[in-house]
Amino acid sequence: MKPVRVLIVDDSLFFRSLMERELGRVLPRGSQVFSAGDPFEARDAILKYVPDVMILDVEMPRMDGIEFLTKLLAQYDQPTIVVTGDARYEPLARQAGARDFLQKPVGCSPQLFFTELGRRIERIVTGGSDASVLHSPALSAKSAHHITLIALGASTGGTEALAKVIRELVPPLPPIVIVQHIPPGFSYMFAKRLDRESPFTAKEAQDGEPLAPNHVYVAPGDQHLRVQAAGGGLSARCAKGARVNGHCPSVDVLFRSVAEQVGAHALGAIFTGMGADGAEGLRLMREAGAHTIGQDAKSCVVYGMPRAAYELGAVERQLPLDAIPGAILALAGQK
Q1: Closest Cα to residue 33, out of 15, 6, 12?
Q2: What is the pLDDT of residue 77?
Q3: How far is Cα 206 from Cα 204, in angstroms, rounded to an integer?
Q4: What pLDDT, on the 0 to 100 scale, is given for residue 174?
Q5: How many CA atoms, within 13 angstroms, populate the side-chain half-sphere of residue 173?
Q6: So which residues are the catalytic ones?
């Protein structure tokens, strides 16, 4: 194999240095290894060095690797191997366009790890293929479904978590519907905040209105929000009703309707909050074929609702809050 140019993108200076040294031993003579500490440095490095392969971490400050890869590949075809410490990122990395995925050495010899990494770099550069590597079974048939709706649910601490996620999403995206446990009046104010701070048109949902792409709909603080499929599209159904799991609006009510009306063409995410509202509905969504995401314990204000959903088997992928926007873009982005 001829010499190659490799760019390492990782916020750990130690790991970058280790990788630069070890790759120098396994790559062909004359190869060059460059490094960047985050996606913003990487963007400039790609244009400067034109690497044959990029080695990309996931959990980094300012922008996670999944989001960076999604945005990058929409404009620039950069062969990429995602190398990170958590194997649970593999489906999202491949869905975002990574050519390959490798977990950082845990319980194995670093020498074996770098030998394997060198082998995978060679396979990409030489155009070789290996179905067992390039096509992960974790990406089931449902990954090919066109996502037509994103449904989000949250409670305690949710307004900040949801605002962060919505701010970091990038159009075009399908309609986004939200149930946040919040009093009447405050739901209207929350919707106005999302409208002001994000690239989407955000509003409090109204009964019977069609759900449009690049719009965010927040459930009124005293009404349940459901979705209804009709005439080839989706509409909002808002109505007062008995409390479900102690709440009106209820995340479970929304998620159940999404499972029934949208099925595998939906993506659901459950965020910080007390109790278990939304867990059963998210389970029904996953059983219907939808992608489901849960916020992890470390990034939650209260790890109640996401925990209940995770323990029920409703969560396909549990992620830190910072990684969720990138995951949503990878799974539902209209590229």
Answers
A1: 6
A2: 82
A3: 7
A4: 96
A5: 31
A6: 155, 181, 277
Q: Is the peptide bond before 210 cis (omega within 30 degrees of 0)?
A: no
**DSSP for residue 200:** S
Q: What is the pLDDT of residue 144?
A: 45
pLDDT over 90 for what percent of the chain?
68
Token pair, residue 297, equals 């314990």
pLDDT, tens digit (0-9, with 9 covering 90-100), for 247-286: 999 999 999 999 999 999 999 999 999 999 999 999 999 9
Burial of 83 (0-12, 13-18, 19+ CB in 10 A): buried
Pairwise CA distance, residues 7 & 45, whole Å: 8
**Is residue 261 within 8 Å of residue 149, measured between CB atoms?**
no
DSSP string, 122-147: HHHHHT---HHHHS-TTS-GGGGSPP
Q: What are phi and psi of 38, to 5 degrees?
A: -160, 170
Q: Which stretches in the chain have pLDDT values below 70?
A: 106-109, 128-145, 333-335
The two structure tokens encoding residue 234: 């989706």
- Whole-angstrom distance, CA of residue 103 vs CA of residue 55: 12
Helix, strand, coil percentages for the chain (3-state, nearest 5):
40, 20, 40
> Token pair of 122, please?
């060679």
